């Protein structure tokens, strides 16, 4: 029996951990109980930021975070964990899976760890996007309104891009956001999506919610297993993990849509949250700045360029189809939502 | 009348005003080390302690930019909706670097907290013996291991060009790791001086400084 | 014989409780024990790697950057001589009252507790300022010494407090919540001290007679002016630091920076700012910060080894299986903290003992904010418990004519009051939890 202790970077009550445990059950069942994945709470052996280093060294057998947590070690990690503005070409989380599983993404993902120089085997487990633009004190009509607020942004390029378009972007850890909002240290914030946001309790302080945002259209959580530990598994066990991981991609997507829907329903109908459409000029400004940031990074780093090129190449044919097909769904769905809202 | 009374108090005569945590500070750079000490030991102790003293004198300056950075950030954010990206990272990096680079200085000054309600009652000779053994058996090996691990740790980070993954500014972080390792190196060096001092106390029955 | 990792962890704790009392610096003892027991449990290579990770992590903990800032602020205030002014003003105002100096001491303690985060300065300065006049007026030495030492410890409970800043990350509670929660208990403790010392004075006026005639200022307007000059500067500083934190302009670390900045301005305003004094404050700041923060890092490493060995999970399960009630566990922990407070400083207690026990409390769903304040009040006794109570030596140092035995006996009286205060917070958690909920809506 092999026990893989996986330290996560978020509290054990989070949805990601619920899904991670579901994945662990699948692995256990598929390996006849031979591979046991045990989830350790964030910070139990090493700090959140040191999780990948600890897996690499074998201090813990596994880690669980979002790929872009490791952007500090390699800028291309962002293109896997949270490609800003859908890699600048409108890739959504489903299209991302298409790129990942079918258009060379996975091979580049395996290479990412080598580029980083860490001895880990990674598995993409949970598509989490699209994330919401965020929460505001007052409605915003234009980018000029947006720029009036001190806004908590995600770390790295997605956050820097806000700075680039003149938004007063404030960096802070998850645990500090709500206290900072309550006391007025910041006026607006983003975290994730309706379910995690409502668990955080943003609705207690802010009532204006914007779902459409570009900073983290695609977000992926993944698992890292120490290379030696992984290589010591039998081929069958390795296959079992891969199959369970692929299943987890679909299961997570399914879980998320329903859970976020339930949470949003409660936010709007019970907690008095008002949904708004994001100002139109946000998309153009953010998109332009994001592309600039992506180009800068591509110019500086060859592997970054390779990954981004692959995503753009995929997008060239896939996105016109997918976006076109999705538009009808989105329009129909929004018409239905509007009808519901009237009742 | 009362004010005149108050004015007469010369606070400078009470050296330990400050905090209780500083009360036990015994160490200082010994300008006059005892004559019956081996000249080489005397030279080494003086050189090392002096070196560590300078580390402290420089490391203590790092708090100044933190103060101004924090002040700037609060004013810029609260009154001009113009938060900085750097203040948060600057404060934690400088704070972390200052306490690691101050560690050897604090060792020289005898500031690291001891649970010393027994130790305090020992004769100086016994204190010297206890310290001598523990500096050699406990302190030095763990610091040398630490130095080795710190070296690997910072080298890897440097080669990666590692940046902070948990901030928007995303500054390079390998200088922090190098500071960590440097702090440990300084501790190893100061450890040599402490060994020599406790050796003297163990053999002569009194502390040299 | 082969031991499981969990058992090795138990040995590690046992060894720690023995080893630190040998008297070698605690940080290095903890590092050594971490390396030895970690190497035994999971190999030396991983252990020392874990050490670098934990030290690095501690270096990047932004909340703790507040520690040097609050410490610096305390030293600058001390240099500006703000405390003396306020004390003199209150002394003047209340000169004809019985026990007036007790009131002045406690009042100044509260105000400066709210302006700085360190303790030692209060005891020494209060001793220097109050003791001479107390002697001249024929005050009871024990009650006087007790009031001064107890008052001096208030600074560590009343926010801003470096103890609470260090406790926040350990118990995973926002420091702002801790600050808000500590305000009422801090003021309550001061009130209890006041009731005790002044109450005893009224029953037996010989314990604190009115001041002799030559110390009484007849000019009312002069008194008013002194009061103004005594009050304004500390109020400004409190607004800068604590105010900016509680009213949301700043995070605790930023607020500490504001306070540090404000203290420089005040020192300049009072023409007490010198480059030498400034540098001296910086050096002392480094000294205190290093001894606290290096121990933070060493303890984090020690705790991580312990955690990696799996012992906390085992202890938690064990205790939960014993089926003891949450309040029983809290009482046991407080008793442990109280006992350890006799030989140890607050720093190792907060850093070593609390993390080991926190998982159990979380499982038992104890309100951690309430628990943290209980520990803070309990730790205040560590300053008042002889023989290892540095406050006593400080006071003896500045008032040599007071007998150490009398100082001890005075402190013991206030330790009893401390326990009464502790019991009150235990019985009425709202004393701690009401204000944070009121400020920030709670939950
Ligand atoms: Na986000
Ligand atoms: Na205080």
UniProtKB/TrEMBL annotation, chain B:
Part of the tripartite ATP-independent periplasmic (TRAP) transport system. Its main location: membrane. Keywords: Cell inner membrane, Cell membrane, Membrane, Transmembrane, Transmembrane helix, Transport. Belongs to the TRAP transporter small permease family. The chain crosses the membrane at residues 58-80, 92-111, 132-151, 171-189. It is found in: Cell inner membrane. The lineage of its organism: Bacteria, Pseudomonadati, Pseudomonadota, Alphaproteobacteria, Rhodobacterales. It is a multi-pass membrane protein. It holds the Pfam family DctQ. This is TRAP transporter small permease protein. Residues 67-199 form the Tripartite ATP-independent periplasmic transporters DctQ component domain. The complex comprises the extracytoplasmic solute receptor protein and the two transmembrane proteins. PANTHER family: 2,3-DIKETO-L-GULONATE TRAP TRANSPORTER SMALL PERMEASE PROTEIN YIAM, SLL1102 PROTEIN. InterPro entries: DctQ, TRAP_DctQ. GO terms for cellular component: plasma membrane. One of its GO terms (molecular function) is transmembrane transporter activity. Coiled coil: none annotated. It comes from the Bacteria.
Automatic annotation (TrEMBL), chain C:
The keyword rRNA-binding does not apply. It is a multi-pass membrane protein. Keywords: Cell inner membrane, Cell membrane, Membrane, Transmembrane, Transmembrane helix, Transport. GO terms for cellular component: plasma membrane. InterPro entries: DctM, TRAP_DctM. GO terms for molecular function: transmembrane transporter activity. Pfam families: DctM (PF06808). It is found in: Cell inner membrane. Its main location: membrane. Residues 14-431 form the TRAP C4-dicarboxylate transport system permease DctM subunit domain. Part of the tripartite ATP-independent periplasmic (TRAP) transport system. This is TRAP transporter, DctM subunit. It comes from Litoreibacter janthinus.
